[in-house]
Structure formats: structure tokens, C-alpha cells
Amino acid sequence: MDDRRLMKGNEAFAEAAIVSGCRYYFGYPITPQNELTEYMSRELPGAGGSFVQAESELAAVSMAYGAAAAGGRVLISSSSPGIALMQEGLSFLCSVDIPLVVLNVSRGGPGVGGIQPGQADYFQATRGGGNGDYHIIVYAPASIQESIDLMGKAYDVAEHYRNPVMLLVDGMLGQMMEPVSMPSRDAYALPEDVSAMKPWAITGHDNRRERNVVKSLRLKPDELEEAVEKRGAKYAAAEQELASYEAVDIESAEVVFVAFGSTSRIVKDAIGLLRADGVRAGMIRPISLWPFPERAFEQVPASAKAVISVELSMGQLIQDVRLAVNGRFPVELIHRTGGMLLTPEEVAARTMDILEVK
Q1: So where are the chain's domains?
Q2: What span, in angstroms and rounded, lies between the C-alpha atoms of 282 and 303?
Q3: pLDDT averaged over consecutive 10-residue blocks of the chain (358 residues)?
Q4: Is residue 237 helix, strand or coil?
Q5: Which CATH class is domain 5-195?
Q6: Per DSSP, what are the bridge partners of residue 165?
């Protein structure tokens, strides 16, 4: 029996958070992710959780900070300019080692931009707009089902590393509908004793232990350096343990595409068109954007004439691609921006132009 059901992306993201144990949501309406806030306002209280529409994105991330510091499983969501407003809060969350999940249903920019899909938040997600030495762990699902699967993983990874984790999707995934399999809300059992599971959380101590203090300010330089170095070691471990990707038909490929999220689905169709014309094409799809899966590029075969970054931006992903390729192959860019989408035919045609130049 097929247990799948048809769901819109934004609503599926919300339900996936609930079944993963999220009981606290803070957000502010912004297109193209408004269905998520609507769904959470309707469904989360019935699951024993709390929904708060904040007065702004700055307020939302600050409220999330408090709930996550108390040990709750928290989701915050927004779209590109709203995530920009949350950057200071995300830096603070990293500085105090507090886990939560952030969802960015990205759109075109810069600034307010438009409401159509975009991928120009790559730098924002992987480099961060807050101050200091920190990283957000970032996953980029390519389908609604993968988004559901990664939501539960995101909470587990966030709590293991005590760090915010972002799911970076675009407006296309948020607005489309697909058949999905959704776990039961009983799949995740809320812990009876949060303090036992999260001994660092501010849960009250009843004179049974030393009080927990969550603080970002360290005025003594040696203490701050020690904290930053300790966090750096955590990030180094994450780079070794979390980098993930999908490799598609790269053996003996003449051209290897690199694409993430919904754009990778367009590229898969373009690969079929190129192979039908006798061009051996393959793809590396980063699933984790940070840490970036550099080791995947060791699989690019000597037969490759070019590695092509395909993205809905002026060229952001391509910088990590160039670093990973390390000069072994020419690296080219196929892109659209402003909310415009690529088609498989356009990707195939531009690829032929690039290969003819080579």
C-alpha cells in the first residue's frame, strides 16, 4: 500500500519539523514561505507546541535563542532578506553553542529583490553575515522528500554539534507539490527530562547542580581565544564527518556539472539531453553546502574537458568548485538570476557552446 500523500513544499517542511520533535516556532511572514507559518500556527499547538508570530525577524531569532537555550527543539524560518536580518542572532547562537534549525526558502535579491526562486544566498548561508569565527551547518535538499528526510537529521546534527543547522531550499521547492512519505508524529518521543539529555540547557537546577550560564561576552582575551579554538576544533570535526554529496554518471564524463537544490533536477534532465547527443555528462550534487564536499571532486575523471557550475546566482557556488578542482580542470559557469529559471535545453545548449570553445 502506497502511504504517500501529495503535499506542498512549505507545508511538508513544517510537518517534517513537527514529526522531528519541533515544539517551538518563531517567525515573521515573508513570501515565498508563508504557507509554513500558516501551517505551524494551525498544527503546532495541537501537537503540544507553541507558535509565535514575532514582530520582526530580529525578534524571532532572539525568541528562538531563548527557547533553544532552555533545551527546546526550535524552528525558525524566513526567506532571503528575512534571513539577512537574523544574521546577528545566528552568530550569537553559534557563540554560545546552542542548537536549532533554520529554514531559508530563498528568493532573488539583493535587498528586497523579488519573490521568485533564487540561489544567491549561498554566500550568506555558507560564509555567514554575522561577526567572528563561526559556521552554520548547511544542507541543500533537491526534493520535498529529501527535505523531510533532512529535517530530522538537521535536528540530530544540531544537537550533536550544539550548533545551528540550516536547510537552504528555494522558492521552487517551497511552492511546488510532490507525493511524499511523512513519518508519524509519534516517531519522535519528547524526552521527559530535558536536563538529562541536554545538561547544558537552562532548565532550573533546584540546588541539585551548579547553575548553567549561557553567555557570549568574554572580556578576557585568553578566555575568548580558548572558546574560539575549542569551537574551531568542533568545526574541523564536522568538516570530516558531515560532508555529503550525490555523484551522477561521472565515470568517463566529458563534462561534470555541479549544482545543488532544485537546479540539480534541471541539470539531470540536461544530462539526458546531452547523452542523447553523444556527450558524456555527469554531475556532482553537494547535499551539504557547509561543510563543502571537496573530496567528491577527486572522482572527476581525466576525460573531463570542463567542470561547470550551474546556479541561480551570478556565481557563488563556483568559488567553492574552483577551490575543490584546484586547477585540474577548466571551471565554467552557467547561470540565471533575478528569479529567472534555467531549462534543461538551455543548460545543454550552453554546455555545447562551452565544449566547442574548449
Answers
A1: 5-195, 245-357
A2: 12
A3: 88 98 96 97 97 97 97 97 97 97 97 96 96 97 98 98 98 97 89 86 80 91 97 98 98 97 98 97 98 98 98 98 98 97 98 88
A4: helix
A5: alpha beta
A6: 101, 137
